[in-house]
Amino acid sequence: MASPATFSLRISEDIPLLDRTALSTLQINVGKYCNQTCEHCHVGAGPHRTEIMAAKTAGRILDWLAASEVESVDITGGAPELNPEFRRLVEASRALGRHVMIRCNLTVLHEPGMDWLPEFYRDQGVDLICSLPCYLEDNVNAQRGEGVYEKSISALKTLNETGFGPPGNMTLNLVYNPVGTVLPPPQKALEEDYRRELGRRHGIRFNELFTIANMPISRFVSYLKANGQKESYMGLLRTSYNPETLPSLMCRDLISVGWDGTIYDCDFNQMLDMALGNGKPLKLWDTAPEKLIGRGILTGEHCYGCTAGAGSSCGGSLA
Ligand code: SF4
Ligand code: SF4
Predict the structure, then answer these.
(1) CATH code of the domain covering residue 165
(2) Could you tell me if residue 293 is inside a domain?
(3) Of 9, 72, 141, 155, which has the highest C-beta tally within 10 A?
(4) What's the 275 CA to ligand 2 centre distance in angstroms?
(5) What's the total number of domains in the chain?
(6) Is position 291 within any domain?
(7) CA of 200 to the centre of ligand 2 (A)
(8) For residues 237 and 305, is the Cβ–Cβ distance under 8 A?
(9) Does the Cβ of 76 fall within 6 Å of ligand 2?
(10) What's the pTM?
(11) Residue 227 and residue 238: Cα distance in Å, rounded?
């Protein structure tokens, strides 16, 4: 990991020009189709979205993966399980010996014809990273939709029974993001609250809790604008800027590939159409992991969402 001393040029008030280190994770966003329409969604996903990864694109991504030594594959969406290529992407990545993480919204387990999912996750040996923005019903339903809490709790119980979460040997991590325009509280303390409350109320067990800040893009920025809160939220992110987060930002060692094969420094840049390229967007199969090392990362005002307070990434807080 490079030291902050390598951050030479500043392109905004605080965020320096970041550069890439060796690639450890390929994050595959299979598209924007989802069974939910959450208020904070940085993808703008929902049942009406038609952008989904085709079989040919999935095949080219898997060929690229096979030719690389990238250790981890992180599959996201939308609801990635609803993409027809989901099973193939997981099975082929695992057959190549790669560590696979699935970003699961939990309610997808209740979608028609999806009852095979828990055993599939277990048999493939994937890690699950599941969204649950609170242990209280009202807060979850306010952000993710009426009835989502009940379905999420039911899905977590099924996953526990399938061997995910302690004392089972399969990893079940949860993701918290704030309900509203505040920064996440300290991750460890909140994890203890989740463990106590989910255990006491529902007997649910999990491994770790990741806290993630709401990013000021897509559906969440529309929500901020509609409520006249965009400036105050951006002010909060800016004044909470923490340079200690810079060495651990996920864009340093992750590449994000979209449903059409275009690559980005992260899933947030993907949603802002900030593609890697020289004049035209670059496809994953037009580059190689070693060519990405040292390449400058495209940053913008939204990057304050990753660098505020304890920092934020797909793996939780940073500092
Ligand atoms: S936050 Fe996740 S579950 Fe909610 S709409 Fe977006 S992709 Fe779907
Ligand atoms: S949004 Fe976050 S992960 Fe993406 S480029 Fe900015 S700092 Fe890096």
Answers:
(1) 3.20.20.70
(2) yes
(3) 155
(4) 13
(5) 1
(6) yes
(7) 37
(8) yes
(9) no
(10) 0.94
(11) 19
